[in-house]
Write a structure and sequence with these properties.
Layout: H1 3-33, H2 39-47, E1 54-57, E2 79-80, H3 92-100, E3 106-110, H4 116-123, E4 128-131, H5 135-141
Parallel strand pairs: 1-2, 1-3, 3-4
């Protein structure tokens, strides 16, 4: 076979395979979006230093219900985003929280009880997202560790590595 033709064939095969892999990745993300993650699965992912998970808590900052609001009890490391509505991000600390939200990171949405409607509203803002099944109520029922208090952005620090 002519070397030029052979190169063209290889390039076409690589392009077809690349398009197929992109299609599969999008399908997997779409399927994952429709399958909620359990509290224990989320805890396991958070326990792994290799996996990066962004937790977005869409509950109000305080609440009188049994579960409470973001400041009463939350998944460790969760970023507040009440109602998934930028207009509610009025304080300086909430503006800092908004800056930390990455729409391309793997994200788990936490509501009070896994509300599908608020998840669908918020999911539009993220590329790779799942709903916490049962929400914060399920996290608390499972007896998993939580944080409380006002949101404090993480301090900038070294990136690690060798000196």
């Amino acid at each position: 076979m002519n070397p030029k033709v052979e190169r063209v064939v290889y390039i076409v095969v690589i392009l077809v395979l690349s398009v197929y892999l992109i299609f599969l990745g999008k399908k997997q993300t779409e399927i994952q979006r429709n399958i909620p993650i359990t509290a224990q699965e989320l805890y396991d992912k958070l326990s792994s230093p290799k996996l990066k998970v962004q937790i977005i808590d869409v509950r109000e900052l305080t609440s009188d219900d049994d579960v409470g609001g973001y400041e009463d009890s939350r998944v460790p490391g969760a970023i507040p985003f009440p109602g998934c509505d930028e207009s509610k991000m009025t304080s300086e600390s909430l503006q800092e929280a908004l800056k930390r939200i990455n729409p391309y990171a793997y994200t788990v949405i936490v509501s009070t009880n896994g509300n599908k409607e608020i998840f669908e509203k918020c999911a539009q803002k993220f590329k790779n997202v799942q709903n916490l099944q049962g929400g914060m109520a399920a996290w608390q029922e499972a007896g998993l560790p939580d944080e409380s208090g006002e949101y404090v952005p993480p301090k900038a620090g070294g990136g690690g590595g060798c000196l």
